[in-house]
Sequence to fold (145 residues):
Amino acid sequence: MSLTREDKHLEEIIVADLMISSEKVAHVQVNNPLEHALLVLIGSGYFAVPVLDESNKLAGSISKTVILDQILGNDGYEVERLSQLKVHEVMDDLVSVSENAPFISGLKAVIDEPFVCAVDNNGYFVGILTRRAILKRLKREYYRR
Fold:
């Protein structure tokens, strides 16, 4: 008899049990212009999204704040920079966690971040683990006891 992820105890849960699959997560590519990244961020409603390289390996993240910092000049906004700069030129490094990592590793990873990216053993992006998913699982465990 196999356990569903709802039946598993915290010690048995891995990141893959709680993550949102990569197919459902907005992302951008390293060579996209900032203009495209901003449109993806606005359209998705996210504050930040993962950045993937040409082979879909995780390369970093890009946020609205980073993009706005790039176009804010001394005399106002320099909107033309949105089409001049590429994502890889300004993206942030990103904390990631293995999809096979235990629950506690996921918990530690999201303490200071709203989400972390999950990667497979080869570094390919497979999804995101959100702080919300971790907290919901902790709540369920608390009320189970």
